[in-house]
Amino acid sequence: MGYYAKEPAYHHGQLPRVGILLLNLGTPDAPTAAALRPYLKQFLSDRRVVEIPRAIWWFILNGIILPLRPRKSAEKYAQVWTEQGSPLLVYATRQTEQLSKLLASKVSTPVSVALGMSYGSPSVASALDKLRAEGCDRILVMPLYPQYAASSTASALDAVWRLLLRTRNVPAIRSLRHYHDHPAYITALADSVREYWSTHGRPDKLVMSFHGVPRRSLDLGDPYHCECHKTGRLLAEALGLEKDQYMVCFQSRFGKAEWLKPYLAATLESLGKQKLARVDVICPGFSSDCLETLEEIAMEGKATFLQNGGGSFHYIPALNVGTGWMEALSQIVLGELQGWVSADADPETAYHEAQLSRLRAKALGASD
Ligand SMILES: C=CC1=C(C)c2cc3[nH]c(cc4nc(cc5[nH]c(cc1n2)c(C)c5CCC(=O)O)C(CCC(=O)O)=C4C)c(C)c3C=C
Ligand SMILES: [Fe+2]
Ligand SMILES: [Fe+2]
Q1: Interface confidence: ipTM more than 0.85
Q2: What are the residue boundaries of the structural domains of the chain, listed by start?
Q3: Per UniProt, where does Fe(2+) bind (predicted)?
C-alpha cells in the first residue's frame, strides 16, 4: 500500500457537491467491559485529552485505568443503553439524517451529510470516505460541540487533518470552531427550557451544567471556560432570569487534578442541604443526550440532591432532534456555507443548473 489513501474514482462532468462532516465524541459498541476497553484506550490515549507526560501516563492508563474503569463504566452505560444502541449514537445518527433532509429542502446545491466519531465508530475516516465517494469537493467540518475545547473540538478536527495529510486530491475545507453564542443555538436552548417549564412548572434554580476540563487548560489558554459562561449568560438573558435564579457548573471530573469549578456534585449537595424546593439541570454543551447527561445528571445528580434534603429534581433533555434545534442547526450550517451553496431550493432551477453543468462538462469533453 502506498503512502496516500486510495482515491475515489474521478468522473468528468461530476456535479460539484458540498459535504457536511458532523463530528461527535463517540461511544462504545456495547455496554460491556470488553467494548469499553478499546474505546477508553483510544479516547484516553489522545494527547488532547490527557496532557500528562506520556511515560507516566502509560503506566497509569495501562496499570490502573484500563484494568478497572471499563467494568465500572460498562455498568453505567448499561443503565442508559437503548434497543437501538448508545443514546449518543442514536441521536447523532438521527441528527445527521434530519439535517440532510432539511438542507435538501432549503438549497438547490446537492449536499451530503455524514457522521464521524472521534473515538469508536463510525470513524471520522469512514465519514470522510463516504463524502468523497459521493463526489464532495467542498467539505464543512462541524464538531457538534457548541463551546470550543481543545480536548473535544480540536481533537475532533485533528482526526480530519491527519486523514488529509494522506489524501492526494484534497477537497476545499471549512471548519466550524464553535457556536456557543450563535443566536439560533441560544434561541433553541431557551425555547426548549420554556417548553419544558410550560408543562412541568418552574424551578427555584436553573443549574446549567457543562462537561468539565482540567483547570490547567484554562490557565494555558483554552477558551472553553469563558465560552461556557457566555452561553450561560445568554441563555439566562433569553429566559429573563435574575443572577440568583441560575448558575453555571462543571461536571464529569476525571482524575485527581483540579478541574473547572464549581463542581456540579458539590453544588447539588449544597443546594440539597439548603433545602431548595426544586432544581432543574440543563446541559447546554451536549448536543445529544448521552452517558454524561442521562446517567451522571438525571440519575446520580438527582440522587445527590434528594439525599441531601432537596425537594424535587428535573433534568431538561438535550436538544437532540427537536424541531427547533434541527432548524437552528441548519441555520448555523448555512451561515458557514455562504458562497458554496445557492439558497434557491426551487427544484426547477436546480434541474436546469444540473443540466447546464452536464452540458458544459460534455462540451469540454475529456480535455478538462
Ligand atoms: C462536551 C464536551 C466534552 C469535553 C470537553 C470532554 C472532555 C473530557 N472528557 C474526559 C473523559 C471522559 N469523558 C467521557 C464521556 C464523554 N465525554 C463527553 C464530552 C466531552 N468530554 C461525552 C459526550 C461523553 C459521553 C460519551 C457517551 O458514550 O455517551 C468518558 C467515558 C465514560 C467514562 O468512562 O466515564 C471519559 C473517560 C476527559 C479526561 C476530558 C478532558 C480532558
Ligand atoms: Fe468527556
Ligand atoms: Fe473564563
Answers
A1: yes
A2: 17-179+323-350, 183-316
A3: 211, 292
Pocket test for ligand 1, best of 44, 121, 151 (most atoms within 8 A of CB): 151
CATH fold group of domain 183-316: Rossmann fold (3.40.50)
pLDDT class of 366 with cuts at 50, 70, 90 = very low
Q: How far is the CA of 363 from the centre of ligand 1 (A)?
A: 53
Q: For residue 88, give the ligand 1 atom closest to its CA.
A: 29
CA of 87, closest atom in ligand 1: 29
Task: Give, in order, the Cα–Cα distances in Å from 150 to each of 140, 147, 165, 178, 255.
Answer: 19, 10, 20, 11, 18
In this predicted model, what pLDDT tens digit does every residue of 126-179 receive, in sequence order? 999 999 999 999 999 999 999 999 999 999 999 999 999 999 999 999 999 999
292 is in an annotated binding site: yes
Q: How many residues does the chain have?
A: 368
Check whether 11 is labelled as a binding-site residue. Answer: no
Residues in contact with ligand 1 by the CB-under-6-Å rule are 25, 27, 40, 49, 69, 73, 86, 88, 145, 149, 151-152, 211, 213-214, 252, 254, 285-286, 290-292
Does domain 17-179+323-350 fall into CATH 3.40.50.1400?
yes
**pTM for this model (two decimals):** 0.93
Residue 14 and residue 363 in contact, taking contact as beta carbons nearer than 8 Å: no
